[in-house]
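Supplementary Text 2. Reproducibility record for the structural model of the 376-residue chain.

All settings were left at their defaults, and a single model was retained for analysis rather than an ensemble. We include the record here because the model underlies the residue-level annotations in Supplementary Table 4.
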Amino acid sequence: MSLTYHEFITFMHDNAIINRIPVHGTFSLTPRCNLQCSMCFICNPEVANEELSGDQWLDIMKQARDAGMGFALLTGGEPLLHRDFWQIYTGLRKLGVYITVNSNGTTITPEIADRFQKIPPVRFAISVYGASPEAYEKVTGSAAGYEKLVRGLALLRERGIDFRLRTILSKDTAPDIVNIVNFILSYDVPFGYGNYLMPPVWENGNDPKSKRLSGQEIAEYTKIIRDAVHDYYKSRHIECGCEHGGEHGEAAAQEEQPKDPKLMEFRIRANKIVSKTAFNCNAGLSTFTVGHDGMLKICEIALDTLIDLKQIKFAEGFEQLKAAVDAIKECDECIGCPDKHKCAPCPPRHHLETGSYNKKADYVCEYVRAGVKLME
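Retained model, structure tokens:
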């Protein structure tokens, strides 16, 4: 059977869900960053001494690979700041794992780009916080960061390294959002964005909640973004073909159903398994996250289930993680909600916002309902 890359990825994840294989790992190498984004929930240079060494990371990653991991996301903070980044990256590639790197793009120099050209990742996922030095400084505290971002993207493109760009919708990025849309699309990549600002993981001097837009504002900017995407393609006489306000191009790909009957059977079986959990993602089914300190958790924002991989082996830790996911029940307040299918309730968000998995997150409900009303 000949598969496209998307079909291959989908099959691997569906098979992993059916068999509870930890096929995809997110590794937050460091909470440190060279930017000071106003809405950041994770950056904290004071805990740098807790970061695992390259040897420790590769030990955990090898155990995860042996348990079935085929895909890894290296993130942070800014992962390129980890002192042993290249040891970790090249060692993980030698393990045969497909790697994606999250970055803000400003730390990419010609030397770093050359190293990635020799051993390229599957993709870079790069955040964009403004389409001008002034807008960039408002969000990150660094006007120079904009030029560094542009330089980094040019270096990656010159070397044929694939990347995707996305942004985050906040009070600081909203005024520049149309310019950000045009900036991202000018690189001929899909436009992606997030609209949920998480509470901080720890006290880092930031107050992400103060940078949140209201539910009504998120709904209105979702429409502005959708219109900007369509206007961009229309002005260039390109057929857009998307009717959603999330990630242009990528969302459509994620919804694409397999054409092969055997692959479709796997898709149906996997969807049935996911539907029986409180989650609307693969967390604890086929995916997992490891923090900078070696703590295994359901996902980046699930902070109450922490399993120390410095003390136990990965395989045992993932069994504990599966049990924790299975024990979380669907929020009673979400059951029967008419907008549930448009909201995709997220237990870790519920817990972050309310301190309980069984209470709905009012802020999320607010912007989902505002969006539904606006699109009626």
